[in-house]
Amino acid sequence: MDDPRAQRLFGDSLVAPGDLALSPFRVDRDRIVGSPFFARLGGVTQVISPGGAGLLVHNRLTHSLKVAQVGRAVAERLGADPRTADVLEKLGGCDPDVVEAAALAHDLGHPPFGHLGERVLDQLARHRFGLNDGFEGNAQSYRIVTSTEIRGEATIGLNLTAATRAAILKYPWSRRTHPAPHPRFMEPPPRGAAAPPDDPDGGSLKFGAYSTEVDDMLQARAPFAGRVADWQQTPEASVMDTADDIAYAIHDLEDVHRVGVLQQGAVAAELMAWQRGSFPDDYDQTRPGSAIESLRRQLHRKDAWVADDDAFAAAVEQVRAELVDGLLAIPFDGSLEAEARVAAFSANWTRRLVESIEVAGQPAVRSGHVQLAPAQWHEVQVLKFVQNRFVLARPDLALHQRGQARLLASLVEALLAWLTDPDESERIPRRLRDLVELAEAELPEGTGDRLGRARGRAVIDFVAALTDSQAVGLMEALSGRSRQLWTDAFVL
User: Fold this and answer.
1) What is the phi/psi pair of residue 370, to 5°?
2) Which domains can be identified in the chain, with CATH numbers?
3) 60, 151, 396, 436: which has the fewest Cβ within 10 Å?
4) What is the band of 131 on the pLDDT scale with cuts at 50, 70, 90?
5) pTM of the model
6) Nearest CA to 143 among 442, 369, 475, 492?
C-alpha cells in the first residue's frame, strides 16, 4: 500500500481472523473490537467500580464506546467543513475511522480499579522491580496493540496502521528519552509531560510508550514528520483526546447522579459562595468557594494561553444553572422521567461541546490542533472540578480504594512468589510464562538482573490485564480464602 499512513509495521500480508473490511483503518477498528483486551474493559472501573452499581454506571468499555461516538462525530464535522478540512489535511489528515479506532483502543491498558491501579502498579514497577519506565496506562495501551496481544503466527500486537497507532498516542513521548530534546524540558512543557512534583528526576508524569516500544512509536509517527511537532499530537489523536475530555466531563456525571453520590447542596454551596464572595491573595482556604477559587488560579498558572476570568465566571454560572439547578435539583429515582432528564442533560451538553470545537494550525504548547472553544474549555474545567471535588475526594471512596491498593500490591507479590518457586515451574500459568519470555527478549544483553526485571514486567503486564473481579478472585485463591477449586473468576 502506497499511503504511508496505512502502512503496518509488519506489512500487509498478515491477515487476522475477522479482517473483513476493505479500508485498512476499518480493519484496525475491527481488530481492536475483536481483542479480548477490549472485552475485559467491561469489568474495569471508570469512576465507580462496576461490581458495586450494576448497570447504573459506566465502565471502561462503555466509556470507550462513548469516546468513539463523540470522536467520530467531531472528525466527520471537521471533515465536512472546507475551512477545517484543509488545515487538517496539511497536518497529516483526520480520518473518522482512525479516530474511532484510536478512541476504542485508548483505554486498553487501564488496569483493575482504574487510575488507582495505575498508580499502584507504577510504584511497584519502579521501586519494587527497578523498571525505569514504571507503569502508565497510556503506554500500556500502546504496548498491548504493538506487543502483548496476539495475532497471526507471532507476538506482533494487533499490527495496526501507522495512522491509528499514532492516533492512540495522546502523549507522543517516552518517559525520559524520546523525542530529544525531551518535551518535559520545554517551558511550559506540553500537558502531561512535566515530571511529578514529588519526583523531579522521574521523567514525565504521563507518556505514550515504554522504551521497549519507542521504535514502533517513531515508525507510527513518521508520516507526520514535518507536519506536526515531534511532541505534538496528530490531528486524529487530538480529536480522540478532546472526545475523551468530553465523555469524562459529561457522562461520568451521569453515574454519580444516578447512584446518589453527587449531592445538590454541596455543589450549590461551593459554586454560589464563589460567585458571591471575593478572595484576596491570603484567602481562607477552608471557606466555601475557596476550592473553585484555587482552580481559577491554577488555570492561570498552567494554562495562561486560554485562561480568562470572564469566561471562567460564565462557566461557573452555566454549570450552576444546568447542573445544580437542573439535573441535581430532583434526586434520581430510576423512573423513566428521571432517565429522560439524565439523557437530555448529557445530549445537550455533548452537542454544545462538540459544536464548539475549533482547529488551530499553530496551537499553544499545552493544546492540540483540535480544541474546544475558550468558553467551552472553561466549562469542561468546572465540570471536572465538580467530579474531583465532590466525588473523587470523598472519604468513603478513599476507604474503598485503600483496600484495593493493598489487594493489588499483595497480588503482585503473590504472583512473583509463585513465579520464582522452583517447585512450581511446571504449573505456572502459561500466559505468565509467555510474558516473562517476551519481557526478557526485550531487555538488552548485559542488563543487570535481567531475569528479575523480566519477571517484574511480566507480573505487571499480567495483573494489568485483569478485570476488577478477576483481581479480587485471583487474590482470594492465592491467599487460600476461596473454597472453589475451579472458577470462572479468572482464566489461567
Assistant:
1) -105, 125
2) 4-235 (1.10.3210.10), 259-393 (no CATH), 399-478 (no CATH)
3) 396
4) very high
5) 0.92
6) 442
